[in-house]
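FAQ: What does the model actually see?

It sees only this:
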Amino acid sequence: MTDVPNQPMSVPSRLGATARYEDGELIIDTVPQPQTLRHGVLRGSVLSFALDAVAGITLDQDPDAWALTTDMTLRMRPVPAPRCVSARTRVLREGRRSATCKVDMTAPDGSLVATGAVGFARVARKPDDPPKPIVTPEQAPMVLRDLGTLSSPLRAEAGIEVVDAAEGVVEVEVTPRLLNPAGTLQGAMVALLAEAAAEDLVEARFGEPAVVVDLDLRYLGKVGSGRVRTRCRLLGDTADSPVEVELVEVSSGDVTTLVHARAVRPA
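And it is asked to produce this:
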């Protein structure tokens, strides 16, 4: 269950997410914190945790296989954070080796905050893999509760370092506090690194506040330790042009994630 927090003090566990199970449906509620906002808008990387969790918990019930996120798409509105965002999923396709879910995220008044999709691949557990926790949708409210909040802004909690803001180069040391139960960098933390790179590039080059509202992630490889650095390319001449972000494992030079992001001025 790679979208369930790995330990109580991990960064993903303190993003403000809780769960409800109502009328046979799992709902992930995220309460915004000052530490998870960007210019008053809830970070897309935080919403990506809810997207991944609500779909992953719904699908991943095989103790002998991991449901690994292969791709994720998020589209969000750059509006002031509501008091809560609720994520609900619909399974679009479920096969023996892979599955795809659609997720809508709404404010308490029912207005749409964000929408997205996520794909999973089923990979058999190896004998030396970490133990796999099984969390059913009915059990999720007990697991995602009383996990605490962040004590500093999310980027600082994750340990993201700015190398070259105008080029969108940021770096992070992959520590146990950023891992999922499978022992690799948790998906929302991957999204956060790409988000930080894109927002830094846009703000440094164009001198205006930027909130990342579009994230398209392709997870290509796993990282369990060491350092990961971003490499960016602006695909246009304006502040709202797409930004291509590659996450690179520093020691090997391998590209572990390919991301396309887009930032806009907050509403």
